């Protein structure tokens, strides 16, 4: 937890009411924005923000600091906001049908570089955003929460898992499914991808390859943790490991653990449909099945098994230069992270003379 937040929380728990004011000031706008993205009503969002802060203050004695203060606060905000949305629906008001003032779009879905827009360009952009919101409203509640926290609030997988109190693998699976449903809803309007920061990059169908293509792929199993690494494990990336040197910053952004260590490394080159099984620390086995190839993208089924229990089962797409990352189960003082690289229809390695 942020040291400043931790100190203020402890002062509040000790009876210093004034110590809560800096926390309110620090997170007021973020809390309002999250409530607004849920309800799309300016005044109601302020009501939800106020109620959430009151509930947070009342619940501080039960806050143990096992997650960041703001993810704990976000959890309260989302509970209050979605309770309000359900109540509003029960009163006969359709969720998401209220007209949103144009000036509020700038706060909800800001453009990266709005510049000086012509009136017709601005009108087109607002219409695109309206359709994005309509698409969001077609998602079930658990998918809508995931998209808002990830793509509107910018939380990492780990922070979303803390906020919603679900495993990190569930976060990634739900986010993948939610984005797929949004992509299907927006299929006639692929230009909307610009408004979502290329959220659905790579969604366009690619021409199929010939039958039985060969796939060369590799997988890494890493440990992500905030604790010191166990004896015998070296922090990743190791010297000379250029691929991980380039990729570790991305992992830090996605998961925000302090330490990463490479536990296992696997490679294979097999025809599509050939199952690969490898041993993973913790008496687990990792199963990778390349199912299909489209262009340079390989679709794979990934399964992590411990004993007779499946701990992780998902479908991924990996392409040359664009690996897939999967948040796995807990392992020791951290979690397992699986990274899969793929190369569809690789060129034969030249023979050495």
Task: Write up this protein.
Helices cover 42% and strands 23% of the residues. The protein is built from ten helices and eight strands. Strand 5 and strand 6 form a beta hairpin. It has helices spanning 3-13, 20-39, 42-59, 69-90, 102-108, 119-136, 141-152, 157-164, 168-185, 242-255; strands at 214-225, 259-271, 276-280, 284-294, 297-306, 309-319, 324-331, 334-344. Helix 2 (20-39) packs across helix 4 (69-90). It is globular, with a radius of gyration of 23 Å. It has 353 residues and is of the alpha+beta class.
Radius of gyration: 23 Å
Strand order of the largest sheet: 2-1-8-7
| Portion of residues within helices | 40-55%
Query: What structural class do you assign from the helix and strand content?
Result: alpha+beta
Q: What percentage of amino acids are in beta strands?
A: 15-25%
What is the typical, i.e. mean, pLDDT?
77
What is the straight-line distance between the termini?
Answer: 58 Å
Poorly predicted segments = 90-114, 189-211
Q: Element order, helices and strands? A: HHHHHHHHHEHEEEEEEE
Per the principal axes of the C-alpha atoms, what is the gross shape?
A: globular
Total DSSP E strands: 8
Q: What count of helical segments does DSSP give?
A: 10
- Note the main sheet: 4 strands, antiparallel
